[in-house]
Structures are given as structure tokens and as C-alpha cells.
Amino acid sequence: MKMPGARMVLEALKREGVDVVFGLPGGAVLPIYDVLYDFEGLRHILVRQEAAAGHAAEGYARTTGKVGVCLVTSGPAATNLVTALQDAYMDSIPIVAFTGQVPTHLIGNDAFQEADNVGITRPCTKHNFLVKDGKDLGPIIREAFHLAATGRPGPVHVDLPKDVLVKEAEFLWPERIVLRSYNPTYDGHPGQIKRAARALVRSKRPVLYVGGGVISADANGELAELAELLQIPVTTTLMGLGAFPADHALSLGMLGMHGTYFANMAVHHSDVLVAIGARFDDRVTGKVDAFAPGAEIIHIDIDPSSISKNIKVHVPIVGDCRRVLRALVRAVREELGGAAPVPDARRAWHGQVDDWKRRFPLRYEWSDEVIKPQYVIEELSRLTGGDAWMVTGVGQHQMWTAQHYRFRSPRRWCTSGGLGTMGYGLPTAMGVQAADPSRLVVNVDGDGSFAMNSQELATCFTENLPVKTVIINNSGHGMVRQWQRIIYKERYCAIDLPGIPDWVKLAEAYGCVGLRVTRPSEVASAIEKMLSTPAPVVLDVCVDKDECVFPMVPAGGANTDMILAPPTREVRDKAARSQTGF
Amino acid sequence: MQNGQEPRKHTISVLVENKFGVLSRVAGLFSARGYNIESLSVGETLDAAVSRMTIVVRGDEFVIEQVMKQLHKLIDVIKVTDLTDDSHVERELVLIRVNAEPQHRAEILRVADIFRAKVVDVTGMSFVLEATGDEGKLEALIELIRPMGIQELVRTGKVAIARGPKTKARKTEPVKRPRVPEDPRVVGFAD
Lengths: 582, 191
Ligand SMILES: Cc1ncc(C[n+]2csc(CCOP(=O)(O)OP(=O)(O)O)c2C)c(N)n1
Known about the structure:
The complex is a heterodimer of chains A (about 575) and B (about 190). With about 575 residues, chain A is an alpha/beta fold. Chain A folds into 3 domains: about 1-170, Thiamin diphosphate (ThDP)-binding fold, Pyr/PP domains (Rossmann fold, 3-Layer(aba) Sandwich), CATH 3.40.50.970; about 190-360, TPP-binding domain (Rossmann fold), CATH 3.40.50; about 375-550, Rossmann fold.
């Protein structure tokens, strides 16, 4: 069937099962918006800045398991989108981003609102396309969705010159995508799986180290089965939170720079460490030479290039986490034969882990006078039963949420892990909410981060997205302040955000509900009020600005060097002398 | 990453889809990840839809392993082979324009002859020599010609090909048949 390119784009989206598109129009994509005018079955959510369209698509994708979609115009709109693309790339979030482009005959002429879109997004997408001919549109969009969702998921960008959108061409829709150059490995190598099973069964001090890949692969059930079968403690990365219930007796919480003492100690002393859908990020390993020094390392990942990139792996298993874990559980059962799954030797390990947990839990000083941020998260967790869809900005509040919210299920946690993008919170929460209006979506944000995309309150209001934002308001860039306090001898520089804007008034200016709380005794009732308000709410929580995130592994330090409380003067002086921090 | 052996030169042969932007994808990968490319040459294969890149890169075993994996991760890359330790033939072509002072003309021609270089341009002032060979041969030629005054030198970068097998016949190009991905998520939305 012949049709203009613009209609093909929407037709293709429909065939891919897309129900929501986040976007913002402009000259180059107006042909698409003209078709959208009376196109049935596709909701368009008009954002206020293009990065927000990208983040919203990420939130939608992360929590539904489907591909998120955004649509923006050429030039400045495409460049605004870049941050969200890199964010999705680093956290392996499947989105397809459409940008407008000047007509093909003007490409390269420095035309109005021209940018080399595919040149700019090449290093921050899994793949990208410039569509030069209408008959390629269907197949390219089909391929884009296929690439975004399969293998290691990620963002794919499709650049659409205006003339291609206007001209009529044959709409081609391939049944299947066949790419000779792209064949991800899904099933793990049986021999390697057997080696892994043998190592685990023999192991005296095993630990499972779980990343976002387990969530992408929907492998949480298989993960729990393996952990419970052999009674292996489980720690997750920032991206892996929710893959294993926080309340489970085997849960160690998060590891790494701001991970729990017991997670870092357990990993350090493990004899077999199984990394599953995780990539040994520097924020996880600390100093690599000192990371899990005595462990045989088994690494399960769909991306071969993640294996032995930062840490030498002894048993690499390339494959889909779910399929590999399923095969691994089977192999472990075979390997066990009739033997007891938990040998006596491993009971000592459980005793050791429990002892660490008892002696060094996450803790903070309570105050009757000033609100402690950790307490806010604890109350949020309690009042939502650990079942809200949680989103954050970047900084201390993000780490406190990761530490103190008791996640029970996967796909309810969105945070900017790899890129650490301030401003991620609100737009991502919008995408999570757009996927399902009945969800309770809470965005825990910092006053610095929130300011970077607070204009999206307008989108929340007009599109009826009742996101609840809790600003952990410490009147500044708290995480930067923490580094300057601990590492730079309290030479505070460029971190103050002294009480402006008035967030309650700002919320109200956007038609949303604004609430403020300043005393610890009022926190719970304020959260309850926020949760029961059927509208977008901003709850401004004025917290102790001196509070720091602990434990903390100094950048470049070993995980065992973590500090649990504000450091002594000697430690700080030593930190100030070194270049990297500690 | 922990260091492996000493860094050395590797010759990597990469088969790519001959698509818009593929060269910048490969080149961009090297700059983004900080790998040192020593030379890169590209040309079509028997199948016009497929190009062959020969890349010479220096690194220890861990770096090379990552280079190979990262190359393979690019969607348009079909196949990556490290030829370094396999039996293979490497060639490079060099064009040299050298001063042709009367007292040196005979010597230049003699050297060219020894190296089976061709004289492809002659003027009263200069010769242009064309030579092919492996790196060692071309370096030796250049060293002998250098004293005569090299005006300009252009090299193609290396191309390389695996040697034929001693026994059974080798598979021929074009490349292996595409395989349909098995991911259930894909089949789901067929029209
Ligand atoms: C876009 C961007 N710019 C700068 C930074 C560096 N940075 C990391 S945390 C932080 C401060 C965050 O402040 P806020 O959002 O108020 O959170 P808090 O740490 O106070 O909880 C800054 C500036 C960043 N991560 N992202």
C-alpha cells in the first residue's frame, strides 16, 4: 500500500504495539503531527523539553518491559535529546527515538535547524539510522524496535528527513527481522554452566552479585530459585534493586560505593562470586585489584564485551540471564545428586554474614528537631508497603532511597545509574505513570536535580499524570557538599541553593498541589496526605543539610576501606593530599 | 583491567555491511575507547553489500580481546578475525616520490630493482616508485631511499588475508547465511 512517510511512521508504531509516544513538535516533524491529528489508538504526551521525552520513554520501558518511544524535531530538539539517549545507553533501557531532519537535498548544507543527528547520537545509541527513502521506513522501524528490545537492550535512534515524511512510497512491513550481523547469544554454553554449577556446589562462601540485566531479562524468579536452593546471599547493584526482595533473609542490599557494610564484606570474602547481568562498574568494584580477591568469578551476561572488561572472569557465560539461570539451577540439581544443598561448611559463612549484618546495619542519628532524610525514605517505604513505583534524581537522596526503600518486586525502580543524570526524576516518573494511571508513582528528588526538569510539572498537570514528588530539600547540591566536606577540607564552593524557588508556590503555579514539612513529627502525616491526593503533588521536605551518605567507599579506594561515619581529621587530611580523593 | 602480555601489533580483519556510516562507527569506536589504531584500510569484497576492513592496532591481550568484542558488538559488523597468530599474508602498497639528482639516479633504480619496485613516474627532478610488500620489506626500502631525499611518501595501510588450508578446500565467500533470531519477543509482533 502506498502512503506518505509520516503515516508509515505512525502505522509502524501501531504495528509494534506502541500505545504512548512522548514528544514535542517542530518544523521537520510536522507531517507526522498532521497525521497524528486524527490517528486512532496512539496517545501523544506533550512534554516541555525534549530530554524529558527521552526520560519518559525510559520510565515507560523500564517498568513495562516494552520499548519506550519518543518523537522530537530536528536540530536543537535532537541535541536536547542526547542526554536521555546516553542515559538509556548506559543503563540498557530499550527506547526508540525519532528525530526530524531537514529534507535530504539540504542535508550537509547547514540548513535551518540542521544538525548531524546520526553523527551526534552514534556513540550514545545501540544503533541509529538515517532514512533516505520512504520504502525503507517500515523495515527500518521494524529493525529499530527489534534491536532496542533484543540482546542487550538499548536506545535506537531513527532520523527522519522531512521530504521522506511527505513523499508517498510503498509501505513495506517485513514479517521477520533477519540480520546476518546481529545474532545475540541467548543460551549459555552448557559446559560453562556445568563448571559454574560445580563451583557453586563446592563453594563455602558464595555470593550472588546481581545487576539490572536480571530485571531486563525478567529473571527474578530464577534468581530466587538459585539463591534459595543453595542458600546463597544476594547483593544487588543500584540498577538491580528489586530483582531480589529487600526483606528476604538472604538479601544483603546494595553493594559498592554507598552499599551496605555487609554486602561489601561478603563480596570481599567470597570464594565464588556470581555476577549476573552486572558489569563490574567502578562504583561497584572500588579499586579493582582489591575486589573479591579470593573469589572464583562467574559472570553471566548477554553482552560478551562486558565480560573480562574490568575484572578477569574465570567462568564466562554469555547468554540471557533467565535462560542461563534456569539451566544453572538444573545443573546444580544434577551436580548435587542426593547431597545436601547446604553443606555444613557454608553454615559458618551464614553465621559470619549475620554477624556483619547485626554489628553494622545501615544507621543514622535520629533527631527530634530536624528531619533526617533517611527517616523520610523509611516512612515512604512503610506507608507504601514497598510497593510504589520509585524514581529518583541524582545525589544523596538517590543513595538514601536505594539504601532505605524496601523494594519487593522488580520493574518498580527507575534511577539513572550509569550516567547519573540530574533531572532524570520527574520526566521518568511521568513515563512510568503514563504506562498505567492506577500506579502509585513516587519521585524522590533533590532540590538541585528537580530544578533541572521542574518545567515538566506542566506536563503532569495537563496530561493528568498524578506523580508524587518528594523533594529531599537540603538547600544545596548535597552530594557535592558531602565530597567537599569529606575530601576537600570543607572548602564549600558552588553548592548552595538557598531556599529558592519556593517549591510549594512553584507546584501551585503549575496547577499541582504543594505541601511542605519541616518537623520530624509531621513527616508521616504529610506523606499520607500526599499519597491520598489524586493529583500531581510536590512535597517539600526540609531536611538536615549536614547529613552525609554512609557507608562510603572513597573513590579509588577498596571496598573494605569504606567509612561508616564522618571521617576523622587524619583520614580527611590524607584524602586532601591525594589527587583522587582518599 | 590487569595487564596481560606486552602490547604488540595485531592485524584484525573485519567484515562489515557496506552501509552508510559504517566507517565512522568503526573509527568512532576506536577513538571513544582510546584504542590506538595504526592503520585502517577498507574495500569491497566479492559481495558488493559487504566490505572488508583491515585494522592494525597495538595492545596487550586484554585490550585486543576488548577491541574484538567491541567491534563485534557494532550492529553492522558481520565478522571479526584476529589474523595475527594465524597463518596469513599481509601486504601494503607505498608510493614514494624521491629526488632524482643525476648522481643518484642509477642507485635509485638499482634499489628499486632489488625490491621489485616499479618506477611509475619520471621527470628530470624526481622519480615516483611504487612498491608492495610486508612491513619489513617496505621499511627497508624506505631506509635505503631516504638518503636520496624523499619528497613525499604515501602508504595504503595494510591489507591481509588468511592463507589457504593445506588440506580440505576452504569455504568461499560470500559470507555465511543469515540466521533467524530465536527470541520469542520478535516473532510475537509479526503482522
Ligand atoms: C546533569 C548533572 N550535572 C551535574 C552533576 C554532578 N552532581 C552529582 S550529584 C549533584 C548534586 C545533586 O544535588 P541534589 O539534586 O539537590 O541532590 P542531593 O545530593 O542534595 O540529595 C551534582 C551537582 C550530575 N550528576 N548531573
